[in-house]
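Give me C-alpha cells for this 172-residue protein.
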Amino acid sequence: MHNLETPYAHNDVKPENVLLTHRKGQPPLAILMDFGSARPARRQIRSRLEALQLQDWASEHVSAPFRAPELWDCPSHADIDERTDVRSLGCTLYAIMYGVSAFEYAPGESGGSLQLAVKNAQIKWETTTPEPPYPEALHQFVSWMLQPQLSVRPRMDDIQIHVDKLIQRFSM
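Here you go.
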C-alpha cells in the first residue's frame, strides 16, 4: 500500500486487525485486515478547516490508542503521509508484547489524557521483572516507530531493513 504510485495508509493498524496464520513447517504469517479506513496516505493540510476535518475523520475511523499524534492535533500547515501507519504499527507491536496499549496507563497514573500521552510519547516499558522480557534492541526499535514527530519517524522501507537486521541478530 505504501509503495503504490499513490501511497495508501491503512489508518487503523491495531492488533484486532492483524490475522496470524500458521501452516505446518512454515513460520507464522501476519495478514493485515479491515481496510475500511484506508485512503491516500499523503495529504497536504493548508488551513485550520482542513486540519479540523482530518481530526474529525480520524476520531471516527482511527482507534484512539493507535492513532498518530498528527491525527489527534493536526497543525494548520502540515504534510501528512504513510508514517501514520508506522506509528500505529509501533503501537501494535507494543500491545502484542505487553497486552495493553503503550499509552493506556497514562490517564490513570498521571491524571492526564490519552491524547496528551500519545502526543508526548509517554511510554511506560515493563519493569516488574528483574530481566526485561524483551531485548533492549526491540524496545529501541518500537520506540523509534513511536516517535511523536512525523518528520523523525521512520518510513516503512526503513522498518523492513531494520526487521531483517533484528531477525538476523536474534535468530543465531
